[in-house]
Amino acid sequence: MNNATSQSPPLSPPKKSLDTVVKLALMVFFGSFALIWGGMYLSRPDRSIPPYSIGSQEDTAVSVHVPAWTSDMEIETLIERFRKVGRETRNFGPMKIRPTTPDDPSGHYRRITIYIFTHDAWAEAPILHKYLTGEDQEVRDGFKRALRGLYRLTETDEEGRIGPIVDGPDSAATAAYSRQLFKHSLLEQP
Fold first, then answer.
1. In this structure, is residue 3 part of a structural domain?
2. Euclidean distance between CA atoms 28 and 35, whole angstroms
């Protein structure tokens, strides 16, 4: 005979809820990750322009370094950002540039020239100084050839260009590696 007796599965003890201290510790743990993520999100760098660092600054001249893989289009975007700041506020402080005309009562950034390089050695202070003083012609020529972009702002004029500084006017022969993005007087409406 086959007496099948049905047995009920063994009853498991009821689940015990987490201790208050454990709950508090988990809230702190996950809350800290949420705060870190939120802070990183809110302080993230501006991704619309390429990453850059200020190499050196002397008077109104500023040397900027961008990564070697930065394209001309990205450098153009950076120059356009400098242009936007120059036109709207003339405050390059948030872009990590010290005042270029600190004693000028009409503004701390009345004149500025920003040189953009992909090789960080050209953005160093001794090189910028030699270029500005003209004491070494070989450095001046190399500085002009190594340049990847330029933004210049004065009280009256504004200029932006991609590529090295060429001696003489832009031509069809230089257009492949150097071109002027804009150059005009600020006294006239563009």
1. no
2. 10
Residue 113 φ then ψ, to 5°: -130, 120
- The domain containing residue 25 runs over which residues? 17-46
Q: Name the residue among 109, 114, 108 with its Cα closest to residue 181.
A: 114
Q: Name the 3-class secondary structure at 32.
A: helix
Buried b / exposed e along 18-50 (16+ C-beta atoms within 10 A)? eeeeeeeeeeeeeeeeeeeeeeeeeeeeeeebb
The pLDDT value given to residue 151: 95
pLDDT digits (tens, 9 = 90+) for 34-69: 888 888 777 666 678 888 999 999 999 999 999 999
Q: What single DSSP character describes residue 164? A: P
In terms of domains, do 85 and 173 share one? yes
Please list the alpha-helical segments (H only) found in the chain: 20-42, 72-88, 125-133, 137-146
Residue 9 domain-assigned?
A: no
Do 87 and 174 fall into the same domain? yes
Q: Is residue 6 part of a domain?
A: no
Report the predicted TM-score, pTM, of the whole model to 2 decimal places. 0.74
Residues 109 and 137 occupy one common structural domain:
yes
Question: pLDDT tens digit string along 110-140?
Answer: 899 999 999 999 999 999 999 999 888 999 9
Structural domain includes residue 190: no
- Ramachandran angles phi, psi of 160, nearest 5°: -140, 140
